[in-house]
Specification:
Blueprint lengths: L7 E2 L2 E2 L4 E3 L7 E5 L5 E5 L3 H13 L21 H11 L7 H16 L8 H9 L3 H20 L35 H13 L3 H13 L3 H6 L5 E2 L2 E5 L1 H7 L6 E5 L4 H16 L28 H14 L9 H12 L4 H8 L4 H7 L17
Antiparallel strand pairs: 1-2, 3-4, 4-5, 6-7, 7-8
Helix pairs in contact: 3-5, 6-7, 6-11, 7-10, 7-12, 12-14, 13-14
Length: 382
């Protein structure tokens, strides 16, 4: 059995069962529970994340006693379930959104800072707010504005004269910290090939096919994992880009089609996926994989279906085995953008393929070290 390799964040080694965020978000970490599931959480520093993980390790596999003490009506935690239930009633679609889970977690975290309603003041909110990171503030601003509207409507926070998360210009608003610059670890073609080969050694044919599809089409994990055989009709693969549909609506979303006969490299990947699907109980999804454990969850329609989270974990496992750090499956999009640019396509053409709103976003994805130079024809005679 291959020995576990040490994991590092900012030069500090992570303790057992603690992992960096799979999306590279600063201040975010993952803890692997005793049952193998992963818990995402926030920490102000690597040291704090290690401390929290060590505490969890002490109780690992043990049945913890239940705290049956019922919260009192003067405690904030008493009203969180009521608010969550109310929001899910008037907005049924919230339950299916991953962001709703993150917002619920943020509300629960607030109760540790402000356990009692009578102690919630403008000064206390501001002091707490200024200690948060930019990403923590961005997550909480809109969600907490709605939550405090609900609290104030019930008269539960008497010391607040207005919503502290208001965006009105006539009130002293909470200020967002400056957005930190994006730290992207580009995926080069040699690193892509190294991870691809390791995926084969690990038995992750599904990951290899997904990498091929993303490199050729620039599709994200979510779109790749949701691809179904029913989207191929008369040899044409048709895709509605999910992020574009969420932003613009179905009618205005980016809609792409590939004639497989005109794209033999793509067809080869699709044919390989079809052979796997037959072996995997004719899985209706193009990306399929035989799971180690036959565990069903609500996110899956078929036992052999691969979820985006599972695909990201596969990639991370193969990447770590190659001792390549930082990059993620999503960076295959950047590699694809760079390769298309080097092949002579314009940034506008690549933008349309990647379903970006702006060419500037497309350029940001590209690896500047590999971009071609424009030959200068202008010259002087003297």
């Amino acid at each position: 059995m291959r020995p576990k390799k040490p994991r590092y964040v900012e030069g500090i080694q992570l303790v057992d069962n603690l992992y960096a965020d799979n999306k590279g978000r600063p201040g975010r970490y993952r803890y692997r529970r005793h049952d193998g599931s992963l818990k995402n959480f926030e920490a102000h520093s690597v040291e704090e994340a290690n401390r929290l993980a060590e505490e969890a390790n002490l109780h690992r596999g043990k049945a913890l006693p239940l705290n049956r003490k019922t919260p009192m009506r003067d405690q904030l935690v008493y009203y969180i379930p009521q608010y969550v239930s109310y929001q899910e009633k008037i907005n049924p679609g919230l339950k299916a959104k991953r962001s709703w889970s993150n917002r619920r977690y943020a509300l629960q975290q607030l109760t540790t800072t402000f356990p009692e309603l009578r102690n919630i003041t403008h000064e206390g909110i501001r002091n707490w707010w200024d200690d948060l990171s930019y990403h923590q503030q961005k997550l909480r601003m809109a969600a907490f504005r709605t939550f405090f509207n609900w609290l104030m409507g019930k008269g539960l926070v008497p010391k607040l004269t207005f919503n502290p998360f208001t965006t009105a210009d006539d009130k002293p608003r909470l200020l967002l910290k400056q957005k930190p610059p994006k730290r992207r670890t580009v995926l080069t073609q040699p690193d892509y090939q190294t991870v691809y080969q390791m995926a084969g050694e690990l038995g992750y044919s599904a990951l290899q096919i997904a990498m091929e599809l993303s490199r050729y089409t620039t599709m994200r994990e979510g779109d790749i994992c949701s691809l179904k055989w029913s989207q191929i009709d008369n040899g044409v693969l048709r895709v509605v880009v999910s992020k574009s549909a969420a932003q613009k609506g179905s009618a205005r979303a980016t809609r792409l089609a590939w004639s497989l006969e005109q794209h033999p490299i793509l067809k080869k990947s699709i044919d390989r996926a079809r052979e796997l699907s037959i072996k995997h109980r004719r899985c209706p999804f193009i990306i399929s994989h035989r799971p180690r454990r036959r565990v069903w969850n609500e996110q899956k329609e078929h036992l052999y279906q691969v979820t985006p989270d599972r695909l990201s974990r596969m990639f991370a496992e193969a990447r770590d085995a190659c001792e390549i750090t930082g990059t993620t499956f999503h960076e295959i999009r950047g590699l694809a953008s760079t390769l298309y640019k080097k092949s002579g396509y314009t940034n506008e053409e690549i933008k349309n393929l990647m379903a970006h709103e702006s060419v500037l976003t497309t350029i940001e994805y590209q690896n500047s070290a590999e971009l071609p130079y424009q030959e200068v024809a202008l010259k002087l005679d003297c």
